[in-house]
Amino acid sequence: MKIARLTLIKDIILEKDTFTIKTNTETLNFRIDEDKLYFLDENNNELEITTKGNEVTIKDTKYAEYKIIISKNYPGITVIRNNRNFNFYFTDSGVKILGSGGRITEPIIADTFKPLVGLELLASSRGYIWGRTLPMLKKYIIVGSGPDNYPIAFPQDDLLAKSYALNDPNMVVDKPHNLYLQTSTNTGLISLLSLLVLLGIYLINSFKLYSKITFDSLEKYLGASCVIGIIGYFAAAMFNDSVVSVAPIFWIILGIGININIRLKRKSSEL
Asked: Which of 82, 105, 128 delimits the end of a domain?
């Protein structure tokens, strides 16, 4: 049985009048000459093409997986390879790429947390997002980037890595899918430590309290249920973010749990 070889887009090189797409199997060069666009192989030999409307295909079977669309709305083209769209924008100063939100930009190679290199697809591509988020803490660890400013802080122009890990290089990474990283990057390490201290105090007091009492009332069962719910929430937070639809429920349960703990301690001290 023949196993299909995975094609990876390894590099995109942008120059003034030329640009190149390199994969692990082939290289496709483009050259702009006034109002004409030429398609070249890795040796800069011109490739024969066919056009249908604003869609271009290359006759050479080596490039059969490419689909090129001439844009009608801006000076540039869209190159599709592996179902990944790269939108090239032609300017007087050189070739650029349209990134997320239609920004004119150039690809970057973002700082990466080294232990997660090669694990980009881990946990539904969380390995990639976490690997790019952890280096951000060097800049935002004290005061953060601002509440809900994670999409602005994240290196959205890390297009090659995004095309591999997230399929769509133009996808906006708007959350880290990890509450602890979300808190650290948005509002800083101090806010995360405050949250963890609050959680730690509550859990330690709860373990001490419920390990000694007899469950003979609804209030005690409700208090223990709150503890279990809080533990479950913070366990799930390793793979999920704090969202408006869930966070208020968490804080309500935590508040109820703390209140019950105080009431039960007061009652036990009165005995």
From this structure: 105
Report the domain count for the chain: 3
The label of the residue with tokens 């995109």 reads 12
The pLDDT of residue 271 is above 70? no
Kindly state the tokens that stand for 29.
């060069």
Question: Which of 43, 46, 19, 42 minimizes the C-alpha distance to 30?
Answer: 19
Question: Which sign does the torsion angle of CA 68, 72, 76, 78 carry?
Answer: negative
* Tokens (6 digits) for 105: 């930009």
Residues 85 and 125 in one domain: no
Q: How confident is the model at residue 3 (pLDDT cuts 50, 70, 90)?
A: very low
Q: How many angstroms separate the CA atoms of 219 and 261, rounded?
A: 10
Q: How many CB atoms lie within 10 A of CB 62?
A: 15
pLDDT given for residue 227 in this prediction? 98
Q: Find, among 231, 144, 122, 128, the residue nearest to 176 by Cα.
A: 128
Calculate the CA 171 to chain-centre distance.
8
CA dist 267 and 109 (Å) reads 60
pTM: 0.90
Among the candidates 147, 170, 187, a domain finishes at: 187
User: What confidence tens digit (pLDDT) does each residue in 133-189 have?
Assistant: 999 999 998 999 999 999 999 999 999 999 999 988 999 999 999 999 999 999 999
